[in-house]
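Deliverable D5.2: sample structural annotation.
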Amino acid sequence: MSQPAVLPVPPDLAARYAGMPEGRAWLRSLPDLAGTLLERWALVSNLGPGAMPWHGHGALVLPVLQEDGTPAALKIAFPHDEAQVERHALALWGGEGAVRLIASDPGTCSMLLERLDAGRPLTAVPVEDAAAVWGGLVRKLNLVPDDRPQWREFEHIAARAEQWSDDLPADWEHLGRPFPRWLLEAALEVCQTRGAVGRRTARDVLVHADLHYLNILARPGTAAADGQPTADAYAAIDPQPMIGEPEFAVAPLLWNRLQDLPLNQPKSGLRQRCADFSAAGGLDSDVARQWGVAREVANALWYAGQPGHHGDLARSLWVASTLAGRTLDGLPPAHALPEPGQAFMTG
């Protein structure tokens, strides 16, 4: 079996990696690498004429057929830390709540995965119904550590919080104090309490740290039960796995789909969303809110240091300060804020 004559690279993915030498080298390697993996795993490309492969932030995903005709997905990631540990988390989950891992090639950060329905992400489900799906998946994904060797590969969330305790104040000063000090201190309080008290507790689980709506896809052939979508019909992808408090997973739900917040009460709507999704997953909503503050302050400082991310910075500051109870003045209204990766909305 051979590779396609040409492997098109999605323009967004090409633009993201063309600006650095290692990124350009990876982009050049993709056709040969895909061809090698197709042969090794006895696959044929299932990419239609003129179609582009799927992609995420850091990987190309090629639809393929296995030797017996079963659909699958060949994921080739740009080598980085999160891509190196993804296969370990998927192996631990074993297809329960997450996409099933069929094969992997650690040297190239490549994996052969169960084919999910990319056209049916959780974004297509109303937020009030999405909570039940998300909560059901979280209950499956929150594995308690055991003696399997994969557990040694993951960073601990409390250790990340300890690192933030040092890094966030330094970044805030270096970037010219881009937001009020009280918001920085709110994040640091979370880092100090959750990083110390929450470290290595009996509540530690395997956490999907990027479990937002676009990272949850329907399994082909599934349908809503009695008109309501269920967790069994969906699976998570792109886990960014860590070990620690399960409430860490709630935050990405809060900085996505701001357009779905109530028009007249977006602030209380955001806090209610945190409560609703936490309840669906059997989580502590106040701990989830605290982690949301810390994670969004960390995001805000990253955006503040990057050109062209004014909209992302504003979104992170709105979410962080709203969760902290004092929405910052001077920010655009919630419904004018961009989704991650989008430009500001106008009109």
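Annotation notes: Residues 277 and 336 are 23 Å apart (CA to CA). Confidence is low (pLDDT under 50) at residues 1-5, 343-347.
The annotation will be released with the project's public dataset once the embargo ends.
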